[in-house]
Design a protein that fits this description.
The structure is a homodimer.
Chain A: E1 4-9, H1 13-24, E2 29-32, E3 44-46, E4 52-54, E5 59-60, H2 65-74, E6 78-80, E7 86-91, E8 94-98, H3 107-124, H4 138-142, H5 146-153, H6 157-171, H7 180-189, H8 193-197, E9 206-208, H9 213-223, E10 227-228, E11 233-239, E12 242-247, E13 251-259, E14 270-272, H10 277-284, E15 291-298, H11 302-305, E16 308-314, E17 321-324, E18 333-340, H12 341-348, H13 352-367, E19 376-381, E20 415-417, H14 430-447
Parallel strand pairs in A: 1-2, 1-13, 2-10, 7-16, 11-14, 13-20
Antiparallel strand pairs in A: 3-4, 5-9, 6-9, 7-8, 11-12, 12-13, 15-18, 15-19, 16-17, 17-18
Protein name (chains A, B): Flavin monoamine oxidase family protein
Pfam families (chains A, B): Amino_oxidase
Family (chains A, B): Belongs to the flavin monoamine oxidase family.
Chain lengths: ~450, ~450
């Protein structure tokens, strides 16, 4: 095969952005994608009735300048998530309506949660985004889990439950899986907690017309036959003369390679020379979160008629968080729900039928018996996805940042690293994927 | 190639025990070992002057009935670790001699440490070894790290430092990397804390004549040409008719396979069908500990002449724990030291020369300037070892046991799982490796 200047591994938003910037700079690029499709952790699904929804990542929001810029460049448009009517919260066994981001808790619970939020935001503002371990209190904060901080900082059981829900919603993980320093980093990386959690003015504000996989499809269209699907990289070699990547179908050579894959995936590739031990050890400690994203299609968005937004947060699982994911222009309605963490792993292991049943039961608990009669249903267990093995992103457990995790974006010889997990701003989001892809492309351009 | 009844992947103690039991039962076995040697996480090293020491696991002790039985069966003998004279402890900037397991702390520190030890032992006695998550308080204990428990349970800074040293010595990891439930499990799995930490009557009591790698060499000799070296398994397939394992040199078929490798290694093998998502997610959360094992050879064991045992524990790194690893019959002396956790990853990344210099500096700090003049020096960075990628064993972080980790020893179709991480008694030790190998062999025999 002809030799490229750069091979990008992974045709998600990060890898394709890197490849497109390199192509724009006149470099010969090739993108090797393991799946028979582009998009990485974004994935469109079309219901039989025509509505396109996303079973992977879907949102963009304010302050995400890089992805918003890319959307404009690609001619893609956004529309707001449906956000009218009452939200619902099920806590203390009672279902209650509320407006905005924070439910109408009892005053002492509200105080507890707001104080915690203020403390998180205040501490987060001090975290150096390029390397959280440079903060003077980094060791202290990196040695405690988010769970330990929650137990210390929140005074009410209900308040602690709310923070667990926050952990699930933002990380697809339980608080004990996360370094507190990482949570502070993530809050600053995503502006502040209100922005991370919010719909209006927040990270869940807007959707992409045609579905978020369109971002990768548009980039791939521009790259043409440089993008090779069904090419899982099984082995890599590098030496003074270049990089060679072995896929199931053959060998690909280039001067440099960019890996734009979830961090753990690099462990699954046979390496010559081997990654340095310290780096392999860090990657052994960067698991993906776990989420099942579930959607039911209904003849109408019946909850709207009841004055409801379709947004619910709940103390009862497995679906603890829902949204109205209906598509403009269609008379039909879509309810969307997330199953996270341990529950995601458990329900991934169950039959599709029982998962559908329990999800609809959750929807009915929040929005009434009409939710039990969908026209259609779809879900996606991201732990089962062959080349992601989890979502939304990698979890940084206690000790990882102060153990050198910032060095995971450092090149190793001719290998460069992109993917949203290597971003400083909006890590874990589309915007971070773009930042990481552009940074890796710039690194490579300096070397070629 | 001819088809075997069973293929065992990994020629460490666990895999070879499994293979030998199956061969004894008349089955046709094949062992595929990725390295050019047997032994797994045991590895002998011969100094130029003839002394054989171990740069991997080395000890056996009382209550380890399975490995002691295997040693007898193989005709291997043991000898006690040198354990005469004063131990040393460097804490609070002062080097002090002591006898036994626990240094002569100030009374309030001693009280603090002993109370913690009693609490650990008392709680550990209740843990079900087959599945710690069955304990009524499992969720509570699995959601806190060992670090959080230490901060709560110990009242003195010095006492907390001692527990951190315990964590390094037993797990090659910092307390924040470990679920408190796992620590309780591990203490019971290894009898109690005194046994885990002790030399006399403890897990560090005895060594194997000729070095611990002899265990695997003896087993391999009995298995003859069934053991194939330099055969890293890169891919596995299973279907109704059997299992196929692809190595760099060819394909191997059998009715069943036993994986006797560190848990993370399974992720590095291309699988068809893929592991279930929940299981892949658990394996993403089971990193190996990190240790550099260091030894210096001297003309004489000069510390003995000073009335010292060669055993030191220290608040200062990178070597915080030492032993006299001299070999009977030689006039020369061997000092051995461990670098653990973050320090192991850092020093693995440094030059061999600078690592040697800092280790000898540590030895001199404890045993005097004579330690700066060795005849020879050797160390082993286990994070760099291609098919271990860490030692001593896998770390179970918060949430893993209650997330279903006991199921990691369940077969997946025709795949069975051994390795010390799947043991109930003495997990992480040779004894657990034997238990796991024999249990996996029994499982397979039931199916053949």
């Amino acid at each position: 095969m002809s030799r490229a200047d750069v091979i990008v591994v992974g045709a998600g938003i990060s890898g394709l952005t890197a490849a497109w910037r390199l192509a724009q700079a006149g470099k010969r690029v090739r993108v090797l994608e393991a799946n028979p499709r582009v998009g990485g952790r974004t994935l469109n699904y079309r219901f039989a009735t025509g509505e396109v929804v996303e079973v992977g990542g879907q949102w963009v929001g304010p302050t995400q300048q890089r992805i918003l810029g890319l959307l404009a460049e690609l001619g893609l448009e956004t529309f707001p998530l449906w956000n009218q009517g009452d939200n619902l919260t099920l806590f203390g066994g009672k279902l209650k309506p509320y407006r905005g981001t924070i439910p109408r808790f009892a005053p002492h619970v509200l105080l507890d949660v707001l104080q915690a939020q203020l403390r998180l935001d205040r501490l987060a503002r001090q975290i150096p985004l390029d390397d959280p371990s440079r903060h003077p209190r980094a060791l202290e904060w990196d040695r405690i889990s988010f769970a330990e901080w929650i137990r210390r900082a929140l005074k009410t059981a209900h308040g602690r439950q709310v923070m667990e829900l926050v952990s699930g919603a933002v990380f697809a993980a339980a608080p004990h899986e996360l370094s507190f320093l990482h949570v502070l980093f993530y809050v600053r990386s995503g502006t502040n907690l209100d922005t991370l959690l919010g719909v209006q003015d927040g990270a869940q504000q807007d959707r992409i017309v045609g579905g978020s996989q369109r971002i990768s499809e548009e980039l791939a269209a521009r790259l043409g036959d440089a993008v090779r699907l069904d090419e899982p990289v099984r082995a890599l070699r590098q030496d003074a003369s270049g990089v060679e990547l072995i896929t199931d179908s053959g060998s690909h050579s280039a001067a440099r390679a960019i890996f734009a894959v979830p961090p753990t995936q690099l462990l699954r590739i046979t390496q010559a020379p081997l990654l340095p031990g310290w780096r392999d050890q860090l990657l052994q400690r960067l698991p993906q979160g776990a989420v099942v994203k579930c959607m039911a299609l209904y003849a109408t968005p019946f909850w709207r008629a009841n004055g409801q937004s379709g947004q619910a947060t709940s103390e009862r699982g497995p679906v603890r968080l829902t949204f109205d994911n209906s598509v403009p222009g269609s008379p039909r309605g879509v309810l969307m729900g997330f199953i996270e963490g341990d529950e995601a792993r458990q329900w991934s292991a169950s039959s599709a039928e029982s998962r559908r049943a329990v999800v609809l039961e959750c929807f009915a608990r929040y929005f009434g018996a009409a939710a039990l009669q969908p026209l259609d249903y779809v879900d996606k267990c991201w732990a089962d996805e062959p080349f992601a093995r989890g979502c939304y992103a990698a979890l940084f457990p206690a000790g990882l940042w102060t153990g050198g995790a910032a060095r995971l974006r450092e090149p190793l010889g001719r290998l460069h690293f992109a993917g949203t997990e290597t971003a400083t701003r909006w890590m874990g989001y589309f915007d971070g994927a773009v930042e990481a892809g552009e940074r890796a492309a710039a690194e490579v351009l300096q070397q070629l």
